[in-house]
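Marked as duplicate of an earlier ticket. Keeping the data here for the record.
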Amino acid sequence: MNKRFTNLKKKAMATTLALALCLSSFSLSFADSSKVVTLGANLKPAQKEQMLKYFGVNQDEAVVLEVNNTEERKYLQGVASEQQLGKITISCSYVEPTSKGSGINVKTANLTWVTSSMIATTLSTAGIVDANVIVAAPFPVSGTGGLTGVMKAFEDATGKPLPEDKKELATEELITTGDLGDDIGQDKATGVINDIKTEIIKNGTKDTVQIAETINNITNNYNITLSPEQQKQVEGLMSKIAQQDYDYSKVKDTLSNVSNIVDKNLSDIGESVKNSGIFDTIKGWFSNLFGGESKDLGILENTNDSLLGDNAQIDATDKNAINLPSSQEVEGFFAKIWNWFTGLFNDSNKNESENSSTTPQKSEYLPGDESSNSNVPASNEDNASNPQEENNNSTDNNASSKEESSTSEIPPAQ
């Protein structure tokens, strides 16, 4: 009896242990399987670790995949030049599918040819509706291969493949937009392609003549003229998009957000789109000033931008995803404002005292001189506190960049 009980006890313990190990393994492997990171296959181990730290994840907190140049060429071949294709893969991505109606939010770092808005609108073409996306590299690259990593990560995170024809279209759109941006600027190019696509999807346009008219109307709004080659390229892209089954209600928020970002960026440099009235301009200004509607940006708010250096080019479809100034910089800024503000009253009191003096004397005092040397923000000193460390970091990054520059994602010739 005791022997039988002992055997049963041993079996129960073994079963419990096996179950615990299975659950532990399941928990470790799928700690957050909805978040997927892709790393450029040609990054060095230290650079891969750097990118994981930049994203704010550990190996057991997200699924980590590699993307190689062969995968990139699958979609870029035929639409990108050999220079744009490159021979190795550097770009990395981090993707988090979000709830219905969230739209596509994108943040980029160290991408020189591709912008966050460009990626956002092309992802809608790929069939992605709701997701937070980061595309970054440890040093400056064009970013042409980043889209491949995002699509691969999204498919792995959701367990659902994206339509192959839409993925090919998204890549073609990215290259078309980038090439056009070489001539008219990234923002204008993004706005033109995005707005044309919006009109075609919204109106269900399929006729080639109507597509050409839509292209002409939008380019007129942006006050640009396409060359015959560019016209043909854009018409070909939009004809393919017109044949797809896009649901405008699902993509309109992303497309509208991209359009608003482009309008704001162009307005900042003194340009505007003809069809945006004064009311839209004021509304956009207030929206950007006060942050607009608050939303959860998820992984976009957890990046460590300082890991990429002070000169890293950071961009995002929502400016709230770009790291705010440090507390020292904020304190320095408000200290400067406070000194200026209190200086006004000090000057006023001093002038009143001089004016009420029984024996007026000629004074060479000029308002503002007393505090002019004390109004330098503390952040200026902080930013230059350790130039040696900054130079060392810059040297290391430049060495790494030069070592791979011959085959890395090189921006197209300007």
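See parent ticket for discussion. Strands lie at 36-40, 63-67, 92-97, 104-111, 131-141, 314-316.
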